[in-house]
Amino acid sequence: TIAWNLVASYYEELPFGRCGLMTAQEPWSGHYKVEAPIWITAHTTQFAQPGWSYLQVDGHLEGGGSFVALTDGLGNLTIIIETMTHNHSKCIRPLLPHFSVTPQRATFYLKGSFCNVETLQVWHSRLDFESGNSSLFQQLHPIKVWKGSFTLDLNTDEVYTLTTLKTGQKCGCPEPPPSQPFPSNYKDDFNIRNPPFSEAPNFADQTGVFEYFVNASDPGDHVFTLRQVVVQRPITWVSDADQTISVIGNFQWVNLTVTCDIYIEKNRDGGVFVAGRVDNGGIYVRRTKGVFFWVFADGTYRVTGDLAGEEILMKGLSGVRDNVWHTLTLNIQGNSASGLLNGYPLWENVTISKPSNGWAAIGTRSFEFAQFDNFHVE
Questions:
Q1: Position 91 in a domain
Q2: Which intervals hold domain Glycosyl hydrolase family 59 catalytic (predicted)?
């Protein structure tokens, strides 16, 4: 089994949100969830180890569902039974042929050296998809084996482990901090002298990589910055955007002001942006929409409705040039957006039709060095 991914620690509205054994997607609050896949996995992993062997059993139940059996070769036995219904067994791919599962009474027969087994420990999960009141990895009373056989009543959407091992445990997890939305007023000046990690918290890079940077040649205001460092298009398994982008904040945000100091390092055709209402990322990053405020090293600016820069809402001259710090401010209110350069209005009253909500973001025109500092979203 491949679990993709182990812990879902990225904004939930990105592609494949919560597709992990656990979810820890709020570093600002510390909230996390130990999800059902952890305990369904435990039905196998707590009662078998590397070196155990699967037994050659038929594995099909008459009323639908399946089972496997494993042994360590030293007399220990683990049987794992599942009765998942078709609707709750679908994966993204491939299509799952139809099958039916009904409540049933199943009798198992132990042969060979397992004839001597007298008792099996029982662990049980029942997944209730309608109410959400699932019972996960509960230890039930041991089951007696009579003359090598035992009978079990099985319902649908259940998982059982029957084992000679007595080592299973469901640890009590401390109650995590309560869930909180992303702060509605958030600042980061990236002033960390010896960061324990390379990336700034809460930014989620979708294309490109944004890292802490020490700008040793700066006279003082921008010594510690965030820098986009990928300058060559990577080989990717999906079609990354031609631009780099890192998103941050709350996907439900509608009205917001994003301010950030920017520093274009690539002369002539370099460029950077700040954005709001950004609606996508991950494998769909090429078609990301939003409100994007771009400035370029040739002294022009653009406002676009997409990351690709094809939907131009406004354009003109800005006077921005490379290797000089500038401050961009993007303000989105209702159906209107405006932009400031170094605190002075550069454009205003641009009509926004969609998206109606989304993250804030920063990024660059191409795979190029560029720096960001004093990021603020409200």
A1: yes
A2: 1-46
